């Protein structure tokens, strides 16, 4: 695939869009915690606003579809419970119960914010101490590290989404040039969620 900067006015069939979104949701991700959300912006007024928030790039102005891809540093809690609730079969393996029932809280739970960052430092010290004896994941410990952790999985899902469109003969452009505050307001998401990229998709223009 290539990043295409300009698209024709041909719409993408609804079935294709839905299939590509489904493919994105099947992407590999950390512990299957699926720390992402995808906002398909279809309201005409909001699409104009979103294109402007993306610095009026040609890829945003001419795209048949605009999809905002976000990371979420909070939804892992509910998703941990969902894994246990939806586990196939009557008996959940002990190691699965231990991991999703408690270990994810230690691994990904945020520590209270304080002026000196002592909470994050304490958590890091505990991990480092365990690491002296056993191999140990040393992060995430802070909100910034949680965002990095989530963004890795979101990026994998974005690649699935873009490859899905290409397989159907359409092209995409992943955009990082955007006004985060404006994109957040347009899509309506709040605390714990952040924009990873905005993807424009459509039929490739000959000058794209």
Task: State the main characteristics.
elongated, alpha+beta, 4 strands, 208 residues, four-stranded antiparallel sheet
Blueprint of the fold:
Blueprint: H1 14-25, E1 36-41, H2 44-53, H3 58-61, E2 65-72, H4 76-85, H5 94-108, H6 118-131, H7 143-167, E3 171-175, H8 180-187, E4 193-202
Helix pairs in contact: 1-7, 2-8, 4-5
Summarize the entry for a quick read.
The protein is α+β, with helices and mostly antiparallel strands and 208 residues long. The chain has 8 helices and 4 strands.
Task: Explain how this protein is built.
By secondary structure, the protein is of the alpha+beta class. It contains 8 helices and 4 strands, in the order αβααβααααβαβ. α2 packs antiparallel against α8 (180-187) and α4 packs antiparallel against α5 (94-108). The radius of gyration is 20 Å and the shape is elongated.
Strand residues, percent: 5-15%
Number of helices: 8
* Strand line-up of the largest beta sheet: 1-2-4-3
Overall body shape: elongated
For the terminal residues, how far apart are their CA atoms?
Answer: 13 Å
Mean pLDDT: 92
Radius of gyration: 20 Å
Largest sheet: 4 strands, antiparallel
Query: Which bin fits the share of residues in helices?
Result: 40-55%
Structural class, from helix and strand content? alpha+beta
Strand count: 4
**Element string (H = helix, E = strand):** HEHHEHHHHEHE
**Spans where pLDDT lies below 50 across 5 or more residues:** none
């Amino acid at each position: 695939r290539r990043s295409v900067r300009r698209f024709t006015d041909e719409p993408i069939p609804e079935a294709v869009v839905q299939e590509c979104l489904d493919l994105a949701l099947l992407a590999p991700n950390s512990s299957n915690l699926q720390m992402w959300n995808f906002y398909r912006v279809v309201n005409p007024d909001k699409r104009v606003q979103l294109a402007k928030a993306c610095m009026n790039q040609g890829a945003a102005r001419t795209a048949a579809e605009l999809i905002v891809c976000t990371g979420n540093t909070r939804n892992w809690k509910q998703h941990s419970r969902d894994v246990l609730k939806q586990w196939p079969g009557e008996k959940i393996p002990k190691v699965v119960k231990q991991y999703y029932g408690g270990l994810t809280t230690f691994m990904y739970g945020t520590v209270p914010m304080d002026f000196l960052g002592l909470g994050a430092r304490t958590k890091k010290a505990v991990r480092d101490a365990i690491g002296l004896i056993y191999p140990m994941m040393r992060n995430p410990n802070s909100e910034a590290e949680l965002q990095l952790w989530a963004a890795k999985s979101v990026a994998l899902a974005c690649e699935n989404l873009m490859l899905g469109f290409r397989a159907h003969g359409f092209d995409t452009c992943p955009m990082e040039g955007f006004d985060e505050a404006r994109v957040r307001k347009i899509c309506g998401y709040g605390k714990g969620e952040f924009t990873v990229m905005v993807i424009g998709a459509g039929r490739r223009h000959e000058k794209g």
